[in-house]
Amino acid sequence: MSCYINIKHWSGPDVPEAAASLAKLFKMPADQANNIVENLSQGISWQFDQTVSDGQCRQATQFLTGKGFDVATHPVGTAVPAERADTPAAAPAKGSTVLGFYGKGGELFGIFIVNLALTVVTLGVYRFWAKTKVRNYLWSHVSFLGSRFGYHGTGKELMIGFSKFFGMVFGVIVIVGILQVTVPVIGQVVGAILSIVVGTVVPAFMVGAWRYRLSRTSLRGIRFSFRGARKTAVWLFLKGGLLSFLTLGLYTPFFEMHRQKFWRNNSWFGNQAFDFSGEGRDLFKQFLLAIVLTVPTLGFNWFWYLAYVQRYSWSRTRLMGAGFQFTATGKQFFFLQMGNLFLIALTLGIAFPWVAVRNMNFMARHLTYEGGDGFDKALQDMQESGAIGEEALDAFDIPIDVG
């Protein structure tokens, strides 16, 4: 029989010595072990993410107990295993949990350089694996409620998704080309219709991309999923875009909240659904104020509006009876984005790894989960998804707009 090893606490006079013992036993880097020991001394538990035999459990328990660790073991099947625990990026308020991010720009830069070289050597083929490696690094360095996220997508999946999408697009281009040569009038009409269709189906591709990403993301061994329908997304964007145009943009905050409701209410963690209750009318006054201030502030006031929307949206999002809070101010959001812009511009894109880490750290510092007593209610309920939506978005160079 196998079990998991959970360390609840540590107390002792020598952190480096305890960290060295932990690193030796679990074969982990010294800095990671040091962080874990410091966390344990503050009452933040840690659990080894692999199962070990009963004999190894007993030996490890005896060894760790002698080093001042408070150890508990759990047979497989009696508890959902936590992947890893670390100190949050900022001290949480009582009853709240802060995200933690532990990635480093230098580490990601090393991955970035190797990815770039292999992508060039393979004439772009390696980009599917490059994207997967970056995403895997970022996901695995985010912790929530004492566990790290996991990413399970593969480069092969993205390559197959791209191949299917490219095959469809290539086939359509060939047919339109033949029609334009043989029957020019019909070919032009078909081409115009297809241009409209492509713009219409982009929301469907967005659904496919978000469904793929969530289905490949896990926490505590439980997968996320997205269950929104493509046709619903297409109608939502058509209606919202038309109303925004007819109202000269005044419908925008209502359209924004309808989009948020679609993306968040259809996102699930295992068998538990997210719930979003935001309303466009709550943003309308701030939106009008942002319009009025656009000229005197040269448009910089929109950073404050976007930060307000983020705070409002997260405050209206709930999961398993508990809510989220986002604390970033407009000023903080402004300096984040301006800093990112200067880093990318001054380094001609080489600073991308540091920008990615800055963004993740920013979210980790400002996003909290207000409560978590019922988090263990989540059970596995996987929803399978292919990668064609993911690569379709890459082909169109369109980001996923999920708020």
- Beta-strand residue percentage: 5-15%
Beta-strand segment tally: 15
Biggest sheet record: 11 strands, antiparallel
Whole-number radius of gyration?
A: 24 Å
Percent helix: 55-70%
Query: What's the structural domain tally?
Result: 2
| Largest sheet strand order | 5-15-14-13-12-11-10-9-8-7-6
- Count of alpha and pi helical runs: 14
The SSE order reads EHHEEHEEEHHEEHHEEHHEEHHEEHHEH
Q: Give start-end ranges of low-pLDDT stretches.
A: 78-95
| SSE class | alpha+beta
C-alpha end-to-end distance: 45 Å
Shape: globular
The overall pLDDT, averaged over residues, is: 81
How would you characterize this protein structure?
The chain is α+β, with helices and mostly antiparallel strands and 403 residues long. It folds into two domains: 2-87, 2-Layer Sandwich (Ribosomal Protein L30, Chain: A), CATH 3.30.1390.10; 98-396, no CATH class. The protein has 14 helices and 15 strands. The protein has helices at residues 15-26, 30-41, 54-66, 105-121, 127-140, 155-182, 184-215, 230-246, 252-265, 281-293, 301-315, 330-347, 352-366, 388-396; strands spanning 2-10, 46-47, 52-53, 69-75, 97-98, 100-101, 142-144, 147-151, 217-219, 222-226, 267-269, 272-276, 317-319, 322-326, 367-370. It has an eleven-stranded antiparallel beta sheet. Helix 4 runs antiparallel to helix 5, helix 8 packs antiparallel against helix 9 and helix 12 runs antiparallel to helix 13.
